[in-house]
Amino acid sequence: MKAIIFGVLFIAAAVFVMLPPDAFGFGLGWNDEVINFLKGCAPVVAILLGIIGVFLGIADMKDRAEARREEKAENNAS
């Protein structure tokens, strides 16, 4: 329950800082800064996700090879 409350609070805070101050009378108007941050971190996040994908692919290939070896050993033992 606490996690849901904190999640809603963080979402509300994110919306608050992006609201333009002159349209609603409140808000911080950080739209440009948020957009610049997202533009700057998008390539870094893409690189990190790509690296994770490569590692997961390598691990999957190793698991499949090991499963084939075990299956082959089972068939030879029978």
Give a description of the structure.
There is one protein chain. With 78 residues, the chain is mostly helical. The chain is 87% helix and 0% strand. The protein contains 3 helices and no strands. It has helices at residues 2-18, 21-24, 31-77. The longest helix is centred in the last third of the chain and has 47 residues, at 31-77. The termini are far apart.
What are the salient characteristics of this protein?
single chain, mainly alpha, 78 residues
Q: How many domains in all?
A: 1
Poorly predicted runs are none
The whole-angstrom Rg is 24 Å
Largest sheet: none
Task: Tell me roughly what share of residues is in helical segments.
Answer: over 70%
How would you describe the shape?
A: elongated
Sheet-strand content, in percent, reads under 5%
Secondary structure tally, helices? 3
Terminal residue distance: 54 Å
Which structural class best describes the helix and strand composition?
A: mainly alpha
List the helices and strands in order: HHH
Overall pLDDT metric: 90
- Give me the count of strands: 0
Question: Secondary-structure map with pairings?
Answer:
Blueprint lengths: L1 H17 L2 H4 L6 H47 L1
Provide a short characterization of the protein structure.
By secondary structure, the chain is mostly helical.
